[in-house]
Amino acid sequence: MKFGRFLTLALACIAATPSPARVIRAKEVDWQVIRNAEPPGLGLRVELPKTTFYQGEIIPATLVFTNTGPLREIWTGTSDRSGRLPDMVFIATDEAGQRVADPLEWYRLRTFFSGGGADYAPLGEWRITLVANEWLRFDRPGRYTLFAASARPYETAGITKLVSDPVAITIAPLSQEDERRITTTAAREVELHDQWAQEAITTLRHLGTPASRAALLRLVAEPGSFDALAAFYTAPDPEEAAKVVLRAVRRGKLPLNQSVEDLYTTLKTASFYRSPWPTDPEAAKRHGEKLAAAYAAAKQEITRAGKPF
Whole-angstrom Cα distance, residue 8 to residue 142? Predict the structure, then answer.
């Protein structure tokens, strides 16, 4: 079967397949509805090390699950083979009540939840610390309200959804001088240690500036480089990020391999995932065919730009 036909059929199936019970999506979260349905004795709270972060700073958030009621269990996985944990989500709103962008929402629509190598355990109190930036991209300074939602606890009746109480945070502006200092320091670590400079790579990824992405560009061609790839997937404008990749390949600054090809074709077809997939079968089919054509055109363009090795 040709790839285009396969992609069309596969994506149509994805669009029509119900989500696993343990997956929770921000757009489906209504804080009050979930809070009203929470069983007595079961709770979730968010703990932050501070309440003011500069724009692009990593925000480590600890989720604390508590249970003082009947016996309940919780899945203890801390990672997922398909990427970001799908049974937890952070949501933030600005002072006008507008939700902060989820930088990986469109990319996650392309992947499946595959679970992790963990099991369920009795729930009394259980903690996990996550980087909230995985779910939140603060595009401007200001005051925000943040909360977490999760579909992780389990009881006989099934999965239970929880929401935490909201916490107030401030995103402070990052001066150009500080941005250059942070980027230069982290880029130097990456230059010295490549993909083993994980802390520096994570810093650059979430800093989310053109300069920080440029510092990670050469890593996108290396194995195990998801954080470097994610710096481009989470860019506010995937089309502009795609141009950066194409230009680097054309100039011989980035070797063309499967990882680079996948990055480019994914960025070039991002618009198909960033807009709702049609529910009408015929419209969904046409949408899938357009996606397949856009993918083929992007693949041809990046192939022409450089010689695979």
Answer: 42
**What tokens were used for 139?**
């595009």
Look at residue 152 and give its three-state secondary structure: coil
Rounded Cα distance, 59 and 243, in Å: 29
Encode 144-161: b = buried (16+ Cβ within 10 Å), e = exposed: bebbbbbbbbbbeeebbb
In terms of Cα–Cα distance, which of 18, 20, 27, 40 is closest to 162? 40
Model confidence at 83, pLDDT cuts 50, 70, 90, reads low
Residue 256, number of CB atoms within 10 A of its CB = 22
Span of 27-31, 89-93, 177-181, 195-199 with lowest mean pLDDT = 195-199
Nearest CA to 134 out of 95, 94, 91 is that of 91
Say how far apart CA 70 and CA 147 lie, in whole Å.
25
The string of DSSP letters for 112-177 reads -----S--EEE-SEEEEEEEGGGT-B--S-EEEEEEEEE--EEETTEE--EEPPPEEEEEE---HH
Contact 285, 8 (CB under 8 A): yes
Angle (CA) 111-79-54 rounded to 5° is 90
Tokens of 103: 């930088």
Residue corresponding to tokens 């109190």: 125
Distance CA 191, CA 185 (A): 10
